[in-house]
Amino acid sequence: MAQTTDTASSLPKALGHIRVLDLSRVLAGPWCSQNLADLGADVIKIERPGGGDDTRAWGPPYAKDADGNDTTEAAYYLAANRGKRSVTVDIASVEGQALVRELAAHADVVLENFKVGHLKRYGLDYDTLKAIKPDLVYCSVTGFGQDGPYAHRAGYDFLIQGMGGFMSITGERDDLPGGGPQKAGVAITDLMTGMYATVAVLAALTHRDRTGVGQYIDMALLDVQVAMLANMASNYHTSGKPPARWGNAHANIVPYQTFACLDGHIIVATGNDGQYQKFVEAGGCADLATDPRFATNPLRVRNRFVLVPLLEQMVKRRTKGEWIASLEALGVPCGPINDIGEVFANPQVSARGIAIDMPHPSAGKVTLVRSPMKLSGTPVSNEKAPPLLGQHTDEVLREVLGRSDGDIAALRAKGVL
């Protein structure tokens, strides 16, 4: 069951002193700004009048109102935009550009994910805004970065997963049914770029607080995808051989994979020789623990094509529940493969309060997934649901820029807002 929003609003927020002007849309940039909002920053999301963030239209599914009817709030948009204030500004207009520059003068961070050079023609690039606010932290998120032969290309998560090597190591082996390259089930490169961007922004803010000097951050999806190849990149540089796809198996550990049981599948992840020995002994195959071909992990990796079929025969003799109960009692890492409904029904997930209900102006409430960051002294904020398009335009212009109702009405009449 989802928990209601937090009751810790009176506690200090880690980034309660920070204002972020968020010109980004879709996922990588908004994921970063949502992290910052969760940590207490005032995130002002700048959106196109009339349409807003592209993901507002990426449905169905949409959040439903009290009568069960679809609202205009797509689930995709809701996943990446809690905690923010939405302001509509036409940045293609001269007056809209001036308004964004004025807001930037009151911000600590600017976040954007336009094509390289696009914002320069609007006077919203780093050099222009730095002249207005020298200690500004400005983070650009693009597909390929600000330089290099691909800098001006558009970058999308799916393309980057392929170009960056991820799909060459994801998916079933080519020699097995269903083998071939496979993307991740979520936009993993976008999400990781948002996470790396968050870390970079926090580092730049710490530097600014020590020195008074802002800086420019150049984040590229391709850079992030290559960086997150992790041990697979290291395997390549160490061996000189591009790693292959192993499906649900592990390139460097055996057994560390899925196995079919009588009634489904389980994951067994033996991280050391002791766990392996307990696993095969629990399956009534103690001889596989003493067999010199399988005594150590390096030997098991070399002889995986002999060992794994024997383990598959062993596991198939029992049910999922029998295996999990047996292996958990022995301290052997194992578990089921849950669908997402089963994930949120899991008692551990429920106990951790990961699903939260947040009041929403058109849906009544929306159920979202809270930040996994748990800070004892400065808890994350769960106070603001993802905003409606332009929901806070008047509020922000009055509060931050001191604009009168008449000024705001005039801007709206001109189509600037």
Automatic annotation (TrEMBL):
GO terms for molecular function: CoA-transferase activity. Coiled coil: none annotated. The lineage of its organism: Bacteria, Pseudomonadati, Pseudomonadota, Betaproteobacteria, Burkholderiales. This is CoA transferase. Keywords: Transferase. Transmembrane segments: none annotated. SUPFAM superfamilies: CoA-transferase family III (CaiB/BaiF) (SSF89796). It comes from the Bacteria.
